[in-house]
Amino acid sequence: MTSTKDMSSQSDISKLKTESDGSFNRAASSVRNFITNDGKFTPEKGRYHLYVAYACPWATRTLITRKLKGLEDFIPVSAVSPHLGAEGWPFKNADPSWADADNDPEHPHFQHVKDLYLLADPNYGGRFTVPILWDKKLDTIVNNESSEIIRIFNTAFNHLLPADKAAVDIYPVAHRQQIDSINEWVYDTVNNGVYKCGFAQSQSAYEDAVYPLFKSLDRLEEMLKDKDYLVGNTLTEADIRLFVTTIRFDPAYVGHFKCNLRDIRHGYPNIHLWMRKLYWNNDAFKSTTKFDHIKETYYSAQITVNPSRVVAAGPVPHIEPL
Q1: 56, 156, 179, 213: which is the annotated catalytic residue?
Q2: What is the pLDDT of residue 19?
Q3: How many CB atoms within 10 Å of residue 134?
């Protein structure tokens, strides 16, 4: 897909704009459809495709949920190269240097994620982000908001799944109010908080983000005392949404984003244990965490934060054993 319009502000992370006070304000995802039995997008095996970057915490939410729900045969996945560049996320044919990146099997000539957005809407004005849940039948985007994609995966295909996978419920009715409450402040101060630290363009904007981040980590540390999960005694989306940030914390956010009041492994023993149990005991978390992708994108792609593109060697190991 080609266009004469300058779309670099939509694809080039080095052109990411901050507010007048130097703070980073993330734009909301803009494609927000759902898969329902009676709507435009109906649940069908093989109809949908998921596009992700293993580096991206938002996309990794969807990978974890897809595996927990046993949707691997229902929804195939394509992962881009971690070399996020001026044209955005590249497929393998645009960046053959990365061995386990994929091409787009639905559109083999496409080179970047932005091509999907422009096919779905030639006038699309948002950023070219992942994840993308794609409808192969209508050749368009269903949804690009990870928090909604994981809820689609949680319920939309249950009637087509084996009983054990249909029974997996990461957003149980009994705990929804508590999950929603936790999600709200964890998103603002932790999931997005690390980005507000890293992309801050003034000292005051950085400090306005970094201290609330660690206040929330302190709060989470207390919540996870003698617990395996954040809510009740069951794995929920609150755990998934927190995990994708904490697993990146020591390898990327401590150094690259200056989130360095404490690290997870030494400063937060309860969070550290909770995170390691999820990683080592549940393959949905371990198999979707690729530290080489994570470090390559954060250190080499975000050149406004790290102009040298030198990738940090540590920590060693990336995650400690149980």
Answers
A1: 56
A2: 84
A3: 26
